[in-house]
Design a protein that fits this description.
This protein has 234 residues and is α/β, with parallel strands linked by helices. It has helices at residues 14-25, 37-51, 65-79, 102-130, 151-171, 197-203, 210-222; strands at 5-8, 29-34, 55-59, 84-87, 133-138, 176-183, 230-233. The chain is 48% helix and 16% strand. The model has no long low-confidence stretch (mean pLDDT 96).
Length: 234
């Protein structure tokens, strides 16, 4: 894996940060992005210090195709290639369907689904040209089963699996593999929205850890899995 280039969205904390850190430990050059410029710069410095790999932070809103194109071009300018794209950026708003506003709907769908679309569309021409690459989309257990007060979030994550399966068919002839990962409850700040602080702290060690998700993503890149596969993590 040494000197391959991985691009990870939503990487300032949680699952994205764990993925970026693990891939940097594997000797890869890493490009990470987040809407929070201070946080993504801090994360890049931390990973670079701990691993010695080059980590490029880029402030990016994946809901904006201009931002995404700029991010991808920055990675290409720095390294010449993008070997692996990890679409991790995501948000959740816990509300019943009837209470969800149009703006909240757009925020969830635009981040979780439109962001995947924009990133894939921007990165794929480079991968197609080289006839190789991996795309890993972080979906969720909520992408396979519906949950009350998460209808829009679930819809977005179901959609991520749909894009994964369709895209895998589209680009298989170019040597590009596309996967989705569907974790259950992961011990992250996002998960804290689903429970009280006391409940979160009580159950933290029993939940999936971000590093476990990162290990599964690395396995997908290193292993011989069938393209289009959605991998559950319990």
């Amino acid at each position: 894996m040494n000197k391959q280039v991985v691009l990870v969205t939503g990487a300032s904390k949680g699952i994205g940060k764990a993925i970026a850190h693990l891939f940097a430990q594997e000797g890869m050059n890493v490009v990470i992005c987040s809407r929070n410029e201070n946080q993504i710069r801090k994360t890049a410095m931390e990973i670079q210090k701990n691993t010695g790999s080059l980590v490029i932070p880029v402030k990016t809103d994946v809901r904006n195709h201009v931002d995404v194109d700029r991010l991808v071009q920055r990675a290409i300018n720095e390294f010449g290639v993008i070997d692996i794209l990890v679409n991790n950026a995501g948000v959740a708003i816990i509300k019943s369907l009837v209470e969800t506003t149009d703006r909240e709907y757009d925020t969830i769908i635009d981040t979780n689904l439109r962001g995947v679309f924009f990133c894939c569309k921007s990165v794929l021409p480079h991968m197609i040209r080289r006839r190789s690459g991996f795309i890993i989309n972080i979906s969720s257990g909520a992408g396979k089963a519906g949950f009350a007060n998460l209808s829009v979030y679930c819809a977005s994550k179901f959609g991520v699996i749909g894009i994964t399966e369709s895209l895998a068919e589209e680009v298989s002839d170019y040597g590009i593999k596309v996967f989705s990962v569907c974790p259950g409850a992961v011990a992250t700040q996002m998960q804290m929205k689903f429970m009280s602080n006391e409940e979160f702290e009580r159950n933290r060690n029993q939940m999936i850890q971000p590093e476990e998700v990162a290990q599964k993503v690395l396995q997908l890149v290193k292993g011989k899995f069938r393209t289009g596969t959605s991998v559950d993590i319990h």
